[in-house]
Amino acid sequence: MTIFGPIGFAAPWLLAALLALPILWLILRAIPPAPIRRHFPGVALLLGLQDDEAVSDRTPWWLLLLRMLAVAAMIIGLAGPVLNPEDDAQAGDGPLLVVLDGSWAGAARWSRQMDALGSELRRAGASGREVALLHLSDPEPAVFQAANAITTRLPGITPRAWQPGDVTDITAALPEGTFETVWFSDGLDYPARSDLLDVLEARGDVRVTQAVTDVVALTPAAYVDGQIELTAIRATPGDERGVTVLAQGRDPAGNATTLASANAVFATGGTTAQTALALPAELRARVTRFEVQAAKSAGAVTLVDDSLRRREVALIASREGREGLELLSPLHYLERALAPTADLLRGALMDVLPANPDVIVLADVATLSEGEAEAISDWVEQGGLLLRFAGPRIAASDISRVEEDPLMPVRLRSGGRSVGGAMSWGSPKTLAPFREGSPFFGLDLPQDVAISAQVMAQPDPTLAERVIAELSDGTPLVTRKRSGQGQIVLFHVTANAEWSSLPLSGLFVEMLERLAVSSASATPSAEDLDGTIWTPQVVMDGFGTLSDAGTRPGVAGPTLVSDPAGPNLLPGVYVSGDRSLARNVLTPDATLTPTEWPARIPVTGLITAPEQPLGGMLLALAIGLLLADVIASLALSGRLFGSVHGTRTAAILLAGLLALPAPQVQAQQAADAEIAAAAEVVLAHVLTGNRQIDEVAEAGLRGLSDTLFFRTSVEPATPIGVNLETDELAFFPILYWPITPDQPRPSSDAYAKLNDYLRSGGLILFDTRDGDITGFGASSPNGRKLQDLAAPLDIPALEQIPRDHVLTRTFYLLQDFPGRHIGGDVWVEAAPPGAEQIEGMPFRNLNDGVTPVVIGGNDWAAAWAVTPTGQALLPVGRGFGGERQRELAYRFGVNLIMHVLTGNYKSDQVHVPALLDRLGQ
Hints:
alpha/beta; 39 strands
């Protein structure tokens, strides 16, 4: 390629044709345009006359210029012009090592970095150089190969959520021999960079490609004085700049959303910006991460763990602290231990349960009512932690003696040398070291913790596996059992200092933290996590995107908090038992340092103008100029508008353009139909693909719409047939779905729309049209198809419509629901298990909403169907009995539509007197 300034030419020899343009100018100027021939009889009078001053006509200069420009554009376009061409002469020779930092710091500019890397590989490939690629954040042995082979790997290269590690691992991956190095830097310094630069310079020349350093990151959030403190940092001081920090989490429905936001401002010349969020406990518990808005980088994301989610703990005691005896209160030490790190709930047990606390503490509570025990059992089954403490009341009771109480982890032994069965010794006992597998494993045992009394556990085959802490003589101190998704833990001593000094020690707080009763307000140290194994739950990539950790192995606790992030320790959220710990990219005291390269190292930026071929544009320009030349020539010769044939041709072309389809008009018509459906009540039926069935369904809904119009205040519009795959369903209160044996099964996307429709209050009337001859079993073709179609739908439990269902009285009082067939069963959503008839009320208190489905086989559309003139389309029964059956079918349809539109308002007590009067009661 030959380069002239910012433009290069692939075939520069074609430009020599431009020298012929002056000659072409002279030739075209000498040729006048063709004269116009007209038949005019009067010309005969001019025969024989001579014009001595006749001058030959010439082509106008502007038309010649137009033609010259068209020819020049064509010549230059064929020469292959390229704007901002890559200079192959600067590509160099010999092996080339491409070094890529590839850390989270370059994620925000990753696409530009990949474009620059692709340009470097193209230049190397054009020069025939071998290339090796070394990803410093995830080093693998670099092997020299063809540049095209490296290019094919570029789409799979992504930034890592950590910076390059030890220089020894990196140098071990370098290829042998000498080579030139081009280093794509992320702009942030790290410990191994300087040593690695010395190693690479010893192998050959080094040049650096690096963008302007504008990296912004977020340190881990901290909960201080009731607020979440957030700190943003940047690498390079600069002008005042504001960033927005978003709190991401899930709404009550479980959908990912932005829960809150806050603005942080970097002062001029400053590198840190702080802000704070004050969120209620319920909202704070739903936060999963904080991120800097529009900063697509793992460093701009900080994950949330138990240190931010203060757990809600309900404290229940058998007796309140007496005045003047606060230290003897069963809850005093628990409150002191939990108040800094948990939200405490106080009140009656049945009052705090609806708040769904994370933990319920029962301090020496021996007896629970049947209702309380059942409510707590259900709460534990759903994932709650029940923490119980022994005491005089439990010791004196017979709870969990003969049989294990469901809310106790073990059976308790009765009797002993203490009152009520508690055991005491002449000298206090100490704690035994915690065994591996216990949540307390690794905690240091203070020498001053002594136990003077406890309730004893009854020997049992399961006792050994339920003991998580014991005394030096082997007697259990803390026992635990799983119950559903939750657990029940019993401290065999009191929650105050009556039986032991455990509540007076720091070990008591640490044990509560290990049980996830409270949340640590600061990141634990390696010593605190000694003996624990943490399993990754979600991990983060370099762009800050979270993904499931899958089957990644667990990490030792000290390693999790002390080792740097890398391929074997990914940033993410790790769990151990009921506790979670976030391993973020940055630590609370982290700083960002921009890279400073020695003066001997050439550094270029990432912003390079890409190559842009101009040949196509110039050829298109040439064609446009030639078309303009044709139009100008026709105008000069009088043939553009003066010819009848030309006018006709223009008219034909114009008509052809107008006859082209207009997608915008069709789309507008579809939008108008949706607006009309949203503005009025429209009954819809599902298109089955069977033309006859679809026509009957449309005629049936037309007849039902007419009946509603004349008998009620509902004025439906014209019914519509809907395609489940393409049409929006939210506009229609009811869908009539006739079942045919051969209709196709909807796609998964269509089923998703159908389930959303059902959950948002819509109703589907399934009609097998076979008179329910087999009870919707598999022996009927329509029954089998109904089972197949309904299987993916979110349909609740069903029952045959009871006599007191609201459908029997929404408008008409009905007990039968015939269509073209009579006597078939009709199925609706089952009543709740506790629905009972109250004395003095004629009906039970059934479901408060609209049944999402009605299933039957009476072929209601055939009974409702009318012609456009209002005549019955299909016969129903015989004689007067048939007309009565059709009338009842219409009444069922009216009741059904009123039920959809009004819900169960007929069940309200305000209607009872009128209904009793009509029922003759």
